[in-house]
């Protein structure tokens, strides 16, 4: 006798309603309602009230102010700890990286990759691109109302962070990582008491915090320091600084490490690893010296491996795929489709040049030379984006700032967002006419942005700060030429030629030994001249002025000869204190 097939849309309401009530995050409820009309009608939008957005149980305030390991890290001794934080509690919160794309068919428009954090239940804080730092303000052209029903929105990655309760914008540690390990036993409702937070501290120490009572369990390290942790098939895996893979056993009084891959990939402190899961496979990303037949000498680069589960070894990959882009950022790693990023090719890795790889010795790891490390510190202090693109095949790093095809994805927000936005009055009338609308809307109000799922449950996005806007460029600068032995954007070569003919070799005696950084210096110099040629003090935008000031400091730092340029800058730049 054949079984009778029942359509999912025909499930009875007495079954759908209990299922929906077990969903505790707004995103899950919205996904549930989006399945079909019958499911949508079975769940009222009022169910969204008092629901968290990203996580069913976060944000969460730890119940004790002083778990034993929570004072390890930047402040080793209690007397070094800031006085206002000595008795402070910690907040565990969730962040998400969203890829926002226009729904209308235009292959030339770049998407927007945005990071938001839910620090208070139902409220978002916008972060710098792919980071955990806060933004200052939105550009003037950003719309007062943003309707997400006009866009395709995809969650790319999820990050958990510890912050201080009294200073919520201050991270507990800059590079720490948190994973949530659940013990649910098929309960009707899941609470924070069912979770353990597994924390990897900046120092490489691993511990587990029971979120029911904030009791912390230390790992049996055996003198090991760990680089990364990941959830894989319901179990926590960790990688040490030598590339050895371990499975974490949380059943005893201490966390025990069970070796999975005992192969040592490297020694020393300077080479670091990250691990991540994709489609049932475990991958390892390693920052190290790379040697290829096409290279005349070894250089700093990135290697990628996949776990061989039969042999318990790491198999090195020659490519991550021409159709994929790998993002290695603080807190998580994820793959993206190259087709989602116009002007990009595949087989690329996006990294934070200071924070993508852990740093037990508190020394910057990723980069090319010590001059580069010092430059990164200067640039970070000036709050520029610190993202880099690693070209896997060529083994070359390229700062995101130097290529508009890259930078436009991160900041500032794309102009098409404003063009797609509907008026506030129209949205209000639509909400009154259609309670079945299940997609989000973001509303810019005094004090922040509101994201509404229907008209009953606002989600506030507080805007506090944002990274310096990168000068816009409308031209594609992907073509390259060699100038003075350095590879630069082809369209900037005529500008550099004129500089050299009139003022000579302005980089003679420079303090840069990295080719990629020298490329940045030459291209930035040409961009400065182009801005000065096409603007006066009245027409110069704030973002252009900021670019001129910060780039001038950077080039002076590398001993580029700029005496000929300074008088031109003085005529267009208004003193910062005025």
From TrEMBL:
SUPFAM superfamilies: F-box domain (SSF81383). Residues 111-353 form the KIB1-4 beta-propeller domain. It comes from the Eukaryota. Pfam families: Beta-prop_KIB1-4, PEARLI-4. PANTHER family: F-BOX PROTEIN SKIP23, F-BOX PROTEIN SKIP23-LIKE ISOFORM X1. This is KIB1-4 beta-propeller domain-containing protein. It comes from Saponaria officinalis (Common soapwort).
């Amino acid at each position: 006798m054949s079984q009778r097939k029942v359509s999912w849309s025909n499930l009875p309401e007495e079954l759908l309603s209990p299922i929906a009530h077990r969903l505790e995050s707004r995103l899950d409820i919205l996904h549930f309602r989006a399945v079909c009309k019958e499911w949508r009608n079975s769940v009222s939008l009022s169910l969204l009230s008092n629901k968290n957005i990203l996580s069913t149980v976060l944000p969460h305030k730890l119940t004790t102010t002083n778990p034993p390991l929570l004072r390890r890290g930047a402040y080793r001794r209690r007397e070094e700890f800031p006085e206002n934080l000595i008795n402070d509690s910690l907040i565990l919160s969730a962040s998400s990286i969203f890829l926002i794309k226009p729904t209308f068919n235009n292959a030339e428009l770049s998407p927007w990759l945005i990071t938001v954090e839910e620090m208070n239940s139902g409220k978002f804080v916008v972060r710098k691109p792919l980071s955990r730092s806060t933004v200052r303000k939105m550009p003037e052209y950003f719309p007062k109302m943003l309707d997400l029903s006009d866009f395709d929105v995809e969650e790319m990655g999820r990050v958990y962070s510890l912050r201080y309760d009294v200073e919520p914008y201050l991270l507990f540690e800059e590079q720490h990582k948190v994973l949530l390990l659940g013990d649910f036993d098929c309960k009707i409702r899941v609470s924070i008491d069912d979770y353990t937070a597994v924390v990897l501290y900046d120092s490489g120490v691993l511990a587990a915090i029971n979120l029911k009572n904030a009791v912390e369990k230390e790992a049996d390290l055996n003198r090991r320091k760990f680089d990364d942790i990941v959830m894989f098939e319901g179990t926590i895996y960790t990688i040490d600084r030598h590339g050895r893979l371990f499975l974490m056993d949380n059943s005893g009084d201490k966390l025990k490490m069970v070796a999975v891959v005992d192969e040592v990939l490297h020694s020393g402190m300077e080479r670091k690893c990250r691990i991540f899961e994709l489609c049932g496979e475990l991958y390892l990303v390693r920052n190290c010296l790379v040697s290829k037949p096409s290279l005349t000498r070894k250089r700093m680069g990135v290697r990628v491996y996949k776990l061989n589960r039969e042999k318990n070894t790491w198999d090195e990959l020659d490519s991550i795929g021409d159709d994929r882009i790998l993002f290695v950022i603080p807190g998580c790693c994820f793959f993206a489709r190259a087709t989602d990023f116009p002007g990009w090719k595949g087989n690329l890795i996006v990294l934070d040049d200071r924070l993508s790889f852990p740093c037990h010795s508190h020394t910057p790891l990723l980069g090319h030379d010590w001059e580069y490390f010092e430059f990164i510190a200067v640039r970070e202090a000036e709050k520029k984006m610190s993202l880099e693109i690693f070209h896997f095949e060529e083994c070359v790093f390229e700062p995101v700032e130097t290529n508009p095809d890259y930078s436009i994805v991160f900041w500032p927000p794309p102009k098409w967002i404003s063009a797609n936005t509907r008026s506030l009055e129209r949205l209000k009338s639509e909400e009154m006419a259609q309670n079945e609308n299940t997609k989000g809307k973001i509303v810019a109000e005094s004090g922040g942005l509101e994201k509404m799922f229907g008209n009953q449950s606002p989600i506030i996005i507080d805007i506090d700060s944002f990274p310096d806007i990168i000068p816009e460029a409308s031209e594609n600068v992907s073509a390259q030429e060699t100038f003075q032995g350095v590879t630069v954007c082809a369209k900037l070569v005529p500008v550099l030629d004129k500089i050299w003919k009139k003022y000579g070799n302005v980089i003679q005696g420079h303090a840069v030994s990295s080719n990629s950084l020298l490329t940045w210096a030459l291209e930035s110099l040409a961009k400065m001249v182009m801005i000065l040629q096409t603007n006066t003090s009245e027409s110069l935008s704030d973002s252009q002025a900021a670019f001129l000031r910060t780039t001038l400091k950077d080039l002076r730092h590398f001993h580029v000869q700029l005496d000929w340029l300074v008088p031109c800058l003085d005529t267009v730049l208004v003193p910062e204190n005025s």
